[in-house]
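Issue 218. Parser rejects a valid record. Input:
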Amino acid sequence: MSHNNTTSAIASGTQAYQRHTSGDGGSVEPKAINNSQQQKLQSNNVAEAIVQMLENLGIESAHGVAGGAMATLWGALSNSRVQVLNYRHEAGAAFAAAEAYFANDCPTVVFTTAGPGITNALTGLFAARDEGAKVILLSACTSAAQRGRWAIQETSTNTLPSDGIFTSGTFFNYATTVETAAQLPQIFRRLALGMSQPGGYVAHLSIPTAVQTSPIDDVSLPRLETHYEPVGVGEETVQKVIELLSEGLFAIWLGFGARYASSEIRELAERTGAGVMCSPRGKGIFPENHPQFIGVTGLGGHSSVMTYMQEQTPLHTLVLGTRLGEPTSFWNATMIPPGGFIHVDIDPEVPGVAYPNAQTFPVQSDIKTFVQTLLKFLPKDFPSAPTLTLPNPEQEGIKEATISLVRPEVLMKAIQKVIVENSNAVVMAESGNSFTWSTHLLRFCEANRYRVSTGVGAMGHVTTGVVGAAFARKGKAVAIVGDGSMLMNNEINTAVKYQILAVWIVLNDARYNMCYQGMKMLGMTGADATIPETDFVMVARGMGAEGVRVEKESDLENALEIAMRSSLPFVVDVMIDPDRKAPSKGRNQGLAQQGVKVTTTKTQAAQISFPNM
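Output the parser choked on:
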C-alpha cells in the first residue's frame, strides 16, 4: 500500500473512493480519482437527489426498515444503484451496516422512518461510531407545517431532543435536517470531506416527509478534490523512538487500529526480538502461533501476559493502534512498563488517557506509515532482545466431562479446526460468555478474521452484524452467540430473504450465563438470569433457513462442516454445559495485582462488575 502524496478526489458522478480506515488509529489507503466537471443533479425531487449524492460518494448498500414518513426516500433508494436490504429491526440494520463496512471498507447507509425508527437505530449507530465505522443514517422527520400538532410518530423538538440526535456532537460526527434542496451542495461537501478522512465517521441526515418530494431547481453538486496525506512522523521523532526502544527490552501492544500493518509489525518484532501482545479486537494482526506472541490482554485474555510482565518486564511498551481502554487493559498497573509507553495513534487525544499517571511518549501517526518509517531508520545493529523463552498463551487441557452436554472448550476446539483453519470465513463473537470463550481459546494467524465489539458491547451486535458481514464479503461469516442475544435480536429472516450465507453458532444454556455465573461468584441470590430453553433449529426452519442441534460432542465437527457447506443461512444450536465457568484468568490475575479480592459482602461486591470475576 502506498501512502505517499496520495490524492483522494471526491467528485460528482464517480465512484468516489475506496479506502481502508482505522477506527482506532489505523492505516488508510485512499485512491486518487479525478473528475473536473461539476454535475447538475439529474433528479426530480430532493429524495432522488440525496440518493444520487450517496452514489457519488461511493455508497454501495443501504440497510434499514421503511415506513410511511420516508416512503419517497425509500422508493428513491430502491430504484438506484445502491443495493437496499430491508431488515426486521432498525438496531439490527445498524449493526449489519457497521459490520458490512468493516468487511469491505465501503461506507454504508442506514435508513429509518420517523420516531421509533430513529430511536431503535441509535444503539447500533452508537456502536458504529465507537468501533470506527463509516455510516450515514437517513431518517424521516415531521414536516414543518405539522410539527407540534400531534402528527403520527411526530419527530420534532416537541418529541425528541434536538441536541445529539439532529445536531453534530458526541453521537454524530455530522448531523443536519434537510429543509431545502439548496442545502445539498454544502451537505455533500461535508459528507465527502468527512468520509475522506481517517478514522470513523457517522453522519445523520433527517429529511422531512414533505421535503423529500419537493422539486429540484437549479442545483449542482460541487467538484470536490480532497488531498489526504496519511499522518506520518518526522525523522527526529523516529530517532527519539529508536533511542527509547534501544534502552532495554521492549514489548509491542497491538490494537484494532494496527490491522493494516501486519507485515510491517511482524518484521519489526522479528528484527528486535520484542514480545507481542494484542487487544481482543487485535487478534490475528500478529500470528497467534508465532513464538514471540505473548497473548491477548484484557477480557478473555491470557495469563501468559501477566507472567511476561512480571518475569520479563519490558522497559518500554510500544503501543500501536489501541486506546488501552478497560476491555483491553483493565487499567491494570502491572501493564505499566518502568520506562513508560510509546503510544502511537492517529488520534492525538488517545495517548496518555487510559493511564494518565504513566510516563507516555505520544506519537500522532497512521500506524502503517509509522512502522514503515521506523523500519527505514532502525539501525541494522539495533540491539535485539536476548534469547529468552517468551511465555505463550496457555494451551489448557480439556478436563473429563461430568455430564453429557457439550463443553464450551470442546466446541471452540471444533470451531478452530473446521472454521478458523479450514475456511476463510470471518468469525465474530457476541458480548458475554461467547466473547470470553472465543477470545481466549480461538487462535488466528491473519488480520481481519476476528470481530468483536469491546467499547459498546451491545447484545445483538454480532447476532445481526453477521448478516452485514456475510453480505459484504459475498461469502460466509460466522457468529458465535448466546441464546439470550439470539432471542433479543436476530436477522435470520433477512438473511433468508437475500440468501446471505450467515452462520450462527448458538451457545444454548437457557441462561444469561455471564450474569448467572457472576451473581453466583458474588455470593448473591434471588436474581433470576434463566430463560426458557429455545429450539433454535425450529426457529431457523420456521424462517426458511436451515439448522442442526448438537447435543453430543462427537457430533460437533460434522455439524459445523454441514453449516459451512450449506447454501442457506444456517443455525448450529449447541446444547452447552451451563456450569463451565467462562475463562477470565487474565483479568483475575490482573485484578489480584491490584489487590482486588472476591468477597460475598454486598458493600465490596457492588464495586466489582461481573467480568471482573
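Fixed in the parser; the record now loads. The domain at 235-377 is CATH 3.40.50.1220 (Rossmann fold).
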